[in-house]
Amino acid sequence: MGVYAYICLLFSISIFLAFLTSKLSDRIQSTIAITASAMVSSLILIGLGLLDWFHLDHMAAHIMQELDFKNFLLNGMLGFLLFAGSLGIKLPLMKEQRREIAVFALFSTLASTFLIGGLIYMAADLIGFHINFIYCLLFGALISPTDPIAVLAIIKNLKAPKRLSMQVEGESLFNDGVGLVIFTTVFSVAFSGEEPSLMSVLGLFLHEAVGGILFGLCIGFIAHVLISATDDGSLEILLTLTIPTAGFILANWLHISGALAMVTAGIMIGNWTRRQGFSEQSKQHLDHFWEMIDHSLNSLLFLLIGLALLLVEFNAESSILMLVAIPVCLLARYVSLWVPYQIISRFRTYNPYTLRILTWGGLRGGLALAMALSIPDKLVTIQGEGITADLRDVIILMTYAVVTFSILIQGMTVENMIERAKVVDPKRDAYVKLGGTRDYPPHI
Prior knowledge:
mainly alpha, Na+/H+ antiporter like fold, 19 helices, 77% helix, transmembrane helix
């Protein structure tokens, strides 16, 4: 079979999984349920492959080779996922939260990268793995961004408080773009073979980030003009497809951040064009169309990852790092959010569940795994006390463990926190801070 046949087959399986999920899970949020079912299917594939049933590892190797998995994810699917997620961001609501979102997306993502890198470096050294710090930092860069697709779906479905919703949605979308830029920068330093300097690293970061945002503004404006020039509802929706296709490919060709370009363009189309460019018919179908693409691609992604993991070698030391990576990532996210939150909360009143929801609801997903799979195979060998392992395999295993825990455990339990946040009045807490009692409003 060729590439087209494999994609058709896997798409059909992912759609069937979505159908089964809708019938079997009434209480689980749909995006989490679909992703979880695809992940469980990938775990079954891994189990069958380890048992050498049906020679699944040979089939997986053939499919991965035919699809060119790295390019299919990072230069194809990623553009659709980020653009779809950013369409739902409402700028008027985000305007009030712009400072918090900027701090969480920039400072927290960067701080989390170094915290995870340092903790994994120490943990690996304790078990006899000697991994260069730059490679631990690489893992920190790819695992720090949260998955906007799953996060946005949960927030919208549960109707979280507006201010809390904007913080979580904005931080999730922008730290995805920022995280990819950080990963690209660290990746270049790790594998370029050249001695890095502060100016070269800063220049690469600015080129990726600023270039991506400016390019996103350009393609968003062009798409707005074209959509505004027609009243054909079907053509208007089709024109939005040109952004994550031609626009994303062109951004990658220019060596700027396609991720930030997609987020920027998506926000423009979801706000400016939604109000002034789309016909009434298109406004009704725009979100539904892109949510459908989200669900199908997310499910397909985890099926492909299940096949990719059949090619990864397991050992005892890697398994230990898999388990260690989960609490390390949770701790790093909490600390990286707690520091700016303590400062900002002095000037604003927040829902008391904000920090907990930002931490526990910061789900990792397909982007992290896509970046892990992009690391060169067999290029770096990790040496230990009588053990040898491929760097790429170790990072993929740690990433998969964190993503699995994130979606199956965090994603299915964060609902309770959001429901509690909905019944808490932050104004009451502000009144208590000023010396009032818990009886709010005060008795006159």
